[in-house]
Design a protein that fits this description.
The radius of gyration is 21 Å and the shape is globular. The protein is α+β, with helices and mostly antiparallel strands. The protein has a domain of about 100 residues.
Length: about 170
Amino acid sequence: MSSFDAPSQPEQSRGSQHDAISTSADAHEIDPKPDAHAVHADPDTPATPEQKPLPQALKRKALGDKSPAEWAYERLVLYIKNFEEQLDSAQEVAMGFTGSNSGVMRIEGMGFFAPDILTFYGSEADGTRTQLVQHVSQLNVMLRALAKPEAQPEAQRIGFRLVADLEQSDPQG
């Protein structure tokens, strides 16, 4: 036997191990804890999504059962909410698009279409309605703080609404 060969086991022994947890993917479905990590220069920086526990709503469905669009959507929701938690009452979240001259979009809605499309609904600073349809493999956005429109009494918090929607969504889809 070479050093790369697994030691042979009697058939019944392998079966009993298989029944407990057969693969790391099976373990991941039981307790989905995706790899995430972040370090900040300022130790007093508020915790970011990589440093916070995954909300229960995101654990209802195994990672392996989620489309790339759904999983990207859920994590982006966490980033948007976290970003909004640090804004003042005169600011709203917006997205700048890296690698293009598309400008900045005030985020007013977000969705996904499995298996691989994310959609962003919003408006530009001048009020022009915008929508971005993006493949998950091209996802690359920058969250930005924009001043809320002067005529609007309070800043809108789309991240908080998106998280509430995740928490109320039917886990069966």
